Amino acid sequence: MCTGKCARFLGLTLIPLSLVCIVANALLLVPNGETAWTNHLSLQVWLMAGFIGGGLMVLCPGIAAVRAGGKGCCGAGCCGNRCRMLRSVFCSAFGVLGAIYCLSVSGTGLRSGPYCLVNGTWDYHFEETLGSYLLNRTQWDLCEKPPGVVYWNVTLFSLLVAASCLEIVLCGVQLVNAAIGVFCGDCRKEVGRREVEL
C-alpha cells in the first residue's frame, strides 16, 4: 500500500476517534445527563483529557494525515507529497502526546473513582480501593449523589481509555508511515506510470 493511501486511511480513522473523545468528555461534565452537578465533578473530568488530549490534539494529526494522502502540494503529487508527509510526522508526534495525556488522566479517573456524596460527605470514596471497586458493583450504589455517577464515569472513562489506546497505536503507525513518505514519496507517480504503461 502507498504511504499516501495508508496516511489517508489512518487519518479517516483518527478523526472519528478524536470526535468520540470530545463527546465522551462533554458527557462527563453532565453526570447522568444533568447539569446540576458541575460543582461536584472529579478533577480528572476538569482536566479535559478527552477534549484536549484525545480530541483536539489527535484531530490535528488526523486532518494532516488525510491531507498527506491527498493529490500533493502542487496538485499533481510532483514532490511525492514529501512536504505534507513531513508536516504529518510532527502532527503525529503531537497526537501521540495528546493520546498519552488522555490515557493517563482517564486511567487515573477510573482508578480513583468519581467525586460523590456518601453518608453526607463529598469525597473520592473509592480512591483507597486502588480500582478494585470496578469489579465490585455493589459498592457503586454507595454514591448517593450525583445519581448513577459511578456507572456514568466508569463507562465514559473506559471509552476514553480504549479510544486513546487506539489513537496512540494509529498515530504511531502514521508517524512511521509519514517518515517513510518523507524519504520515499507516496508512490503516486509510480502508480500513474504503471497505469499509463498498461
From TrEMBL:
GO molecular function terms attached to this record: arginine binding
UniProt family annotation: Belongs to the L6 tetraspanin family.
Transmembrane feature ranges: 9-31, 43-66, 86-107, 156-184
Entries under InterPro entries matching the protein: L6_membrane
GO BP terms, alphabetized: regulation of G1/S transition of mitotic cell cycle
The keyword Transmembrane helix is annotated on this UniProt entry: yes
Protein name stated in the entry: Transmembrane 4 L six family member 5
Upper lineage: Eukaryota, Metazoa, Chordata, Craniata, Vertebrata
Domain of life: Eukaryota
Entry keyword Membrane: yes
Principal location listed in the UniProt entry: membrane
Localization terms from the record: Membrane
Membrane protein topology class: Multi-pass membrane protein
Keywords: Membrane, Transmembrane, Transmembrane helix
GO cellular component: lysosomal membrane; membrane; plasma membrane
